[in-house]
Amino acid sequence: MTPELKRYYLMQASYWCQQLIVLVFGLEKPRKDYKELVAHHIVTLWLIGFALDFKYVRTPLLTPPSPDGVTGSI
Predict the structure, then answer these.
(1) How wide is the angle at C-alpha 9 spanned by C-alphas 8 and 10, nearest 5°?
(2) pLDDT band of 68, cuts 50, 70, 90
């Protein structure tokens, strides 16, 4: 894995981990879809780890951007 790709994965993992911490500790006002957001962040972190463990490093790069403008979610 190239250093740039590894940096990309670590930045994505840290972003989603930060978002999970914000949700779990209630640092923002909970939304109606709180449970779905927590599940989404847990699954996203698991998929990033799974991709790194099994060397599926190019597949997430094909993921199109989401409607809210955040890219890289698997």
Answers:
(1) 95
(2) low
Give the helix/strand (H/E) hosting 69.
none
- Residue 12 phi/psi, 5-degree rounding, is -65, -45
Question: Who contacts 17 (Cβ-Cβ below 8 Å, separation ≥6)?
Answer: 41, 45
> H-type helices in 1-74, by residue range?
3-24, 34-53
C-alpha separations of 71 from 24, 30, 57, 68 in Å: 22, 23, 15, 9
- Residue-wise pLDDT tens digits, 4-58: 878 888 888 888 888 888 878 888 887 788 788 778 878 878 887 887 777 766 6
